[in-house]
Specification:
Layout (H helix, E strand, L loop, with lengths): L1 H12 L4 H23 L3 H16 L6 H24 L4 H17 L4 H20 L7 H22 L4 H28 L5 H29 L3 H29 L25 H20 L9 H11 L11 H25 L9 H16 L19 H23 L5 H11 L5 H29 L3 H18 L4 H18 L5 H24 L5 H27 L7 H18 L1 H4 L6 H28 L14 H20 L13 H4 L15 H18 L12
Helix pairs in contact: 1-8, 2-3, 2-7, 2-18, 3-6, 3-7, 4-6, 4-7, 5-6, 5-15, 8-9, 8-10, 8-11, 9-10, 10-13, 10-24, 11-12, 11-13, 12-13, 12-14, 15-16, 15-20, 16-17, 16-20, 17-19, 17-20, 18-19, 21-22, 21-24, 21-25, 22-24, 24-27, 25-27
Length: 743
């Protein structure tokens, strides 16, 4: 049991084991290269060159399929050989070498427009040229260095395809296990929220927020790899649907638990806004006895998520599954206050989502112990599976940016200018180590798109470098001249660098600098002054990058976030209108793909707002506003996903049927989203957000005998109502005028 728990924790902390695999693959390539070169008796500078080349050849490859990976790696070797040769030829020609380096940097960044392969080849070309400067490559030493590069690339291939192989199918399977583990962790956090006292609820709610965000992150990772990792499009759509169902059910369960703890209905925003006040516990008749049963059922749900029901009949897990699914039937709900009964309903829906997830991922399940409620749930899932179709990809074209408007061209010009400044400034600091400033300038532009992002990344790089210098001083003193001990520590630091890279850029920079301190020791060039110079060159390179980003074809953070915000609103409008139209009796469309596009657009916006929400940001009010807006959009996305998931149930669930009256509500929501988007795109827009009667009142009918809500479920109304309210709330921080309610 302890081993299984540890495996679940590792899977949840590192979805798909991506970080672990990247670290092991890179360390394996370096270790194998060092072993081969050590047996060949090459010099220490060439060992260092081989280690760095193996590292570059491994982490530069980004394709998901093994075939394209092999092609890129094969093309990378001649690129590396050419870059190394030019580095050695131009080493003694300062002006020509500097000019070529700037051209190489421009081409390396510009090549990103050609996709993963262009990015990889550009990265290899730049890094190998840097290696030639680092080890002082000469023309006479080129033949041996050619052999070193050949060994490094061969060992990289062995590590990638034999030692630590990665297939789309295997990776997707690990991501699925990570989703299960994170779903179980979220249920555990919700259980702690249920038990939290007045002094503990804020921390418990924070854990629920983090668990919800991590579950959504894993869902996005799975959706991004479904096409390559599943046997056919229908299977991919089925998994996508079940992942979305489980995510929505888990988030809804958290909301219901918050409501059960308080005297008022919890706001969805509470689960998305850090620092939002937690609802305080109220007293309800019979609360303690009912909550004890909720606690038991949450523990049972967590067990059901992690452990499949055994094939033999009469197992405890099958009985647990039957009990939880029974809560989907009104007659099986325990006697409790309405808010607590909603929690039992939420547990039942979550259990159904887990059952659907098991069927989609593991195949048919044993049905011998099914209760009537479980059998009905299976029938619903089977009916849904029958109507799932592969669908067609949207072939719509997007506007093609040209010239300096293209992001890759603009970034290439910016990096070239920044690198030129770094070369000039670096030469003043040191004629031997000037390339460190250029390396930092290059790195701060990778995966950044605005001046603010570059500023934050440069700051993190500098902090990590300063701390790494201190660590390098200690490690260099411990290692002394023990060559293989130093290389062993370098391998440990390289693994730590790749394992922490997605989590913290500061930590990654720390491990890189500490490793470089050991490499300097091996090259007999280590001194305190060299490490101090490393800090100075890093600060200079970061400053040059920021200057270039701010004054050469600048992309202001406000402009980028506004563009991405408009994209999010457009995707939100598409999903909402399509879902409401389908719930109103319109033609079915591909809602899951639209919801995925919305999630991806929101993830891009969340990343772009990091400069605004970073702790070093001096403008506190602006930081709080950015967080609030993103939280509101996440709330909107949750309700839109829920509407989309409900709309897709129409063909199979008799309890949910189209109601044409929903169109009136959908029209107001669509108009409000369009008004907000228009105002963000152009502050001179005169569009206003309309408010008015509640969504439920819009569905009133004057025809006698007509049911008030038709067959539209109460859950649909709640999602539409909350979405309408959240959009009005979103208008205020964005300074969009809100029209007075019509009388």
């Amino acid at each position: 049991m302890n081993t299984a728990r540890l495996r679940d924790q590792v899977a949840a902390s590192d979805p798909g084991l991506l970080r672990l695999a990247a670290g092991l693959r890179t360390v394996g390539a370096i270790a194998l290269t060092l072993a081969v070169l050590g047996l060949l008796g090459v010099s220490i500078p060439h060992l260092v060159a081989g280690a760095i080349a193996a590292m570059v050849a491994t982490f530069a490859i980004r394709e998901k399929q093994r075939g394209p990976q092999a092609v890129t790696l094969a093309l990378g070797l001649p690129v590396a050989l050419a870059s190394l040769s030019l580095g050695a030829l131009l080493n003694s020609r300062v002006l020509a070498g500097d000019l070529f380096f700037v051209v190489l940097i421009f081409c390396a960044v510009y090549s990103r427009r050609f996709g993963d392969r262009g990015t990889a080849l550009g990265l290899i070309g730049f890094q190998v040229y840097f290696v030639s400067l680092f080890v002082g490559a000469t023309v006479s030493g080129l033949p041996e260095l050619y052999g070193v590069l050949g060994v490094a690339f061969l060992c990289s291939a062995v590590a990638r395809f034999l030692l630590v192989p990665e297939t789309p199918v295997g990776l997707l399977e690990r991501l699925r296990e990570a989703f299960r583990a994170r779903l179980a962790q979220l249920v555990s956090a919700q259980l702690q929220l249920l038990d939290a006292g007045p002094d503990e609820i804020d921390e418990a709610l924070k854990d629920v927020r983090e668990g919800t965000a991590r579950l959504h992150e894993t869902a996005l990772m799975i959706q991004g790899r479904l096409e390559k990792g599943t046997s056919d499009a229908a299977a991919a759509r089925l998994v996508q649907r079940r992942i979305a169902d489980a995510e929505i059910a888990a988030e809804r369960l958290g909301l219901l638990l918050l409501t059960a703890r308080s005297a008022e209905r919890a706001d969805t925003l509470t689960l998305h806004l850090p620092g939002a006040p937690a609802p305080r516990a109220g007293r309800m008749p019979g609360r303690d006895e009912a909550m004890a049963r909720v606690r038991r059922d949450l523990e049972a749900l967590r067990l059901l998520v992690l452990r499949p029901v055994a094939a033999r009949s009469g197992t405890a897990l099958s009985q647990i599954r039957n009990r939880l699914l029974g809560y989907r039937e009104e007659e099986n709900l325990p006697a409790a206050p309405p808010a607590v009964q909603d929690v039992f309903r939420g547990v039942g829906e979550a259990a159904r989502a887990v059952l659907g997830l098991r069927i989609a991922l593991d195949g048919p399940q044993d049905e011998s112990d099914d209760s009537p409620a479980t059998a009905r749930s299976r029938e619903e899932l089977d009916a849904e599976d029958a109507v799932i179709d592969a669908g067609e990809e949207d072939g719509g074209s997007q506007e093609e940016l040209t010239g300096l408007r293209r992001p890759t061209t603009r970034a290439a010009v910016q990096v070239a200018v920044g690198s030129s400044l770094a070369i000039v400034g670096g030469e003043f600091l040191s004629s031997q180590r000037w390339y460190w400033a250029v390396l930092t300038c290059w790195i701060v532009f990778i995966n950044t798109a605005s001046t603010g992002e570059i500023l934050v990344k440069g700051y993190r790089r500098l902090v990590g470098t300063v701390l790494g210098v201190l660590a390098g001083i200690v490690l260099a003193g411990v290692v002394g001249q023990h060559t293989w001990t130093a290389f062993a520590l370098v391998l440990v630091l390289v693994f730590a660098m790749f394992y922490t890279a997605p989590l913290s850029y500061t930590l990654m920079s720390f491990f890189v600098t500490a490793a470089l301190g050991l490499l300097y020791t091996l090259l007999h060039t280590y001194s305190l002054s060299v490490l101090v110079l490393r800090v100075e060159e890093t600060a200079l390179g970061a400053a040059c990058g920021v200057i270039a980003a701010a004054f050469v074809l600048p992309v202001r953070t406000d402009r980028r976030t506004n563009d991405l915000l408009v994209t999010v609103l457009e995707r939100l409008e598409e999903v909402t209108e399509a879902a409401v139209d389908q719930l109103s009796g319109g033609t079915p469309v591909e809602l899951l793909d639209q919801a995925r596009d919305l999630d991806q657009a929101l993830a891009d916006l969340r990343a772009a707002t990091q400069p605004l929400t970073h702790p070093i940001t001096p403008m506190r009010a602006r930081r709080d506003t950015a967080r609030y807006v993103v939280a509101l959009l996440e709330t909107c996305a949750y309700h839109a996903r829920s509407l989309a998931a409900t709309a897709e149930l129409l063909p199979t669930h008799p309890s949910i049927a189209a109601d044409p009256r929903l169109r009136r509500a959908g029209r107001r929501i669509g108009d409000n989203i369009a008004a907000i988007a228009a105002h963000v795109a152009d502050e001179r827009s005169t569009a206003r957000v309309e408010t008015g009667p509640s969504i439920a009142s819009l569905l009133e009918t004057e025809t006698p005998g007509t049911p008030r809500f038709g067959r539209v479920t109460d859950r649909v109304l709640r999602h539409v109502q909350r979405l309408d309210e959240t959009l009005v709330g979103l208008a205020r921080p964005l300074d969009v005028p809100v029209a007075a309610p019509r009388r």
